[in-house]
Amino acid sequence: MKVLRWATGLGMAAVAAVLLGMPFAVTAQGTKGITISPSLKELIIGSGLLEAKTIVEVRNDTSQDLMAQIRLVDFEALDEFGGVSFSQIDSPLAEYSLAKWMSLPEGNTVKLPKNQTIKIPIAIRNDSELSPGGHYGAAIVSVSSDQSGASAGVNFKQELASLLFVKKTGGETYGIQLESIKPENLPSIPETINLSFKGTGNVHVVPRGYIEITDPKGNLVAKGIINPESTLVMPGRTRQFTTIIQTVAEAKVKGEYKITAFYRYDGIEEFQSQTLTFKRGTSFVSTGIILLVVALVTGAGFTFFKRKTRKKARKR
Q: Is the model's pLDDT at 99 over the cut of 70?
């Protein structure tokens, strides 16, 4: 099983090609490298569609003709920081697997002539066993030198992946849950806040929203945008998001401050919210000064009371 780190952004700039194997080295012959696109693609399959088709393009910008092997695998989110694991067809990824429904109509071996782009068609069979909701697979392209035409000293092997996010309609469910709010550097106004979202439906979602920090009087002092990169959360998995906080007003008031996260997912307009509170404005030094003043006042009062008691005793 192979694991990689991923960042997805539907509707944003294209994600860089995922490199799984050895990095491609520039040679004296002017070799540049191999690229794959798209690195991520979302497909929607209606319940009445018998087969969905897509294309992966591989570009050979090297100085030699190459050979490529393609294999189709499942993938799943591994951890909250974006790890992804790949597995072969028929491994127990169960509910969200895709590879067993994928095929390569033109075979799993292609030639990549130098300075050319080759299109690799992929078909996805839509039968009754493909359940509604999200299914996740990848086409992994393994590129190696064509030994018959390669020059000495420039042999290599490289693997790249194109991720497929398939959503079958007719029973898909959506949902996210905010599991934690973790601000940094409290009780100062945090510069970053980490949020952990869990996908509670059966298909991937894109969290949206914003964070507001307010003082004890309800005045806004800082804010931030949740997930501007449009990163996805996989179904049943938790993903951590770091939100950068921008100060909009000086935090002058002492007391209880509120951090409120307003969140939703793409496709709905209504926000949910969750609030975390923290106290600000009473430091160790100021607390010490207050205690010292209280002690001095108490001591002075005790001394005054003692002297007054002595005077009364002398008069008697």
A: yes
Closest CA to 210 of 243, 258, 250: 243
Cα–Cα distance between 251 and 230 in angstroms, integer?
Answer: 31
Instruction: Give the domain CATH number at 116.
Output: 2.60.40.10
pLDDT (tens digit, 9 = 90+) per residue, 189-228? 999 999 999 999 999 999 999 999 999 999 999 999 999 9
Q: Do 155 and 50 belong to one domain?
A: yes
Q: In what order do the strands lie in the sheet with 51-60?
A: 34-37, 51-60, 116-125, 102-103
pTM, 2 dp: 0.73
- Determine whether 20 is exposed, middle or buried from the number of CB atoms within 10 Å of its CB (0-12, 13-18, 19+): middle
* The 3-state secondary structure of 6-41, one letter per residue: CCCCCCCCCCCCEECCCCCCCCCCCCCCEEEECCEE
User: Do 56 and 100 share a structural domain?
Assistant: yes
The secondary structure of residue 127, as a DSSP letter, is -
Q: Using pLDDT thresholds of 50, 70 and 90, give the confidence band for residue 80.
A: confident
CA dihedral 212, 215, 217, 218 (to 10 degrees): 0
Q: How far is CA 26 from CA 23, 29, 31, in A?
A: 10, 8, 5
Q: How confident is the model at residue 146 (pLDDT cuts 50, 70, 90)?
A: low
The sign of the CA dihedral 193, 194, 200, 205 is: positive
Residue 152 included in any domain? yes
Same domain, 138 and 243: no
Ramachandran class of 183: left when φ > 0, alpha when ψ lies in -120 to 50, beta otherwise: beta
Domain limits for position 181: 176-280
Residues constituting the chain: 316
Highest mean pLDDT out of 4-8, 158-162, 259-263, 308-312? 259-263
CA-CA-CA-CA torsion sign (261, 176, 81, 172): negative
